[in-house]
Amino acid sequence: MHKELRVAAYAVCVRDGRMLLARWVARDGSKRWTLPGGGMDHGEDPYDTVVREAEEETGYAVEPVALLGIDSMRRGYPRRLGSAADFHGLRIVYEVRVTGGELRHETDGSTDMAAWHPLDEVSALDRVGLVDVGLTLWRERPAAGHTAGVPEIT
Predict the structure, then answer these.
(1) Residue 122 vs residues 42, 47, 65, 72, 100: alpha-carbon distances, Å
(2) Quick check: pTM over 0.85?
(3) What is the longest distance spanned by two Cα atoms in the chain?
(4) Does residue 149 belong to any structural domain of this protein?
(5) What b-and-e string marks burial along 118-140, b requiring 16 or more CB atoms within 10 Å of the CB?
(6) Half-sphere exposure of 92 (CA within 13 A, CB side)
(7) For 44-85, what is each residue's pLDDT tens digit?
(8) pLDDT digits (tens, 9 = 90+) for 5-30
(9) Contact by Cβ (8 Å): 31, 108
(10) Number of domains the chain is built from
(11) Structural domain includes residue 114
């Protein structure tokens, strides 16, 4: 089985009772809301990753203000020629604040839209499980930076 590790950094940005989300476009064309963020480039610091990714996906310049936690997830998926992959995602989650820029949508990337959503409406959105992980970390601020029992939404 082919093993894959992806390290990524994501932003939880809440302002005036609203949460900033980006709409992720899957390879099959389905779309779900996610936290702004993405994969680290080789040699890149996670702090710099979340700043870069948030700007790419939302148009905003952001400043990380707190490390909320690290989420680890695994899933298998089929690969070409009948083989399988064991995917492990390590997701570093920061609380960020907007320091500049203007809301805009990403072009030619993995997301197609960015928007602010009222916190009380986020649970009704078609979203990935990372949104719930981020909200749990933001609300609970666990000392160890770890949540348990937040399922991935499929």
Answers:
(1) 33, 25, 22, 22, 24
(2) yes
(3) 50
(4) no
(5) eeeebeebebbbbbbbbbbbbee
(6) 19
(7) 999 999 999 999 999 999 999 999 999 998 888 887 777 888
(8) 999 999 999 999 999 999 999 989 99
(9) no
(10) 1
(11) yes
